Amino acid sequence: MTSSHADAEEADIEAEIKRLIVEALQLEDVNPGEIGSEEPLFGDDGLGLDSIDALELGVAIRKTFGIKIESVTEEIKAHFFSVRTLAAFVAARREG
User: Fold this and answer.
1) Strand, coil or helix: what is 49?
2) Is the dihedral of CA 76, 90, 84, 21 positive or negative?
3) Which domains does the chain have, with CATH numbers?
4) What's this model's pTM, rounded to 2 decimal places?
């Protein structure tokens, strides 16, 4: 896979993750296009999601992308930092 193809795939995954965030978490006043790819998903500095949102988002990602997330570790938490880190995680899991 070429770098530009990988970048395009990750951009598609990012768009899908943004859509999932809005739909799965029922964020009615948020448009997927308004979510920054590098914006933190959790805490006061970013989108402001909480641990319940993380669980719901994890379920949506498993269903949508067919990815197993065995347990929540510090490494998994790091992947859920932003849309971009989550997209890279999904892309890597789909290839592997």
Assistant:
1) strand
2) negative
3) 3-95 (1.10.1200.10)
4) 0.88
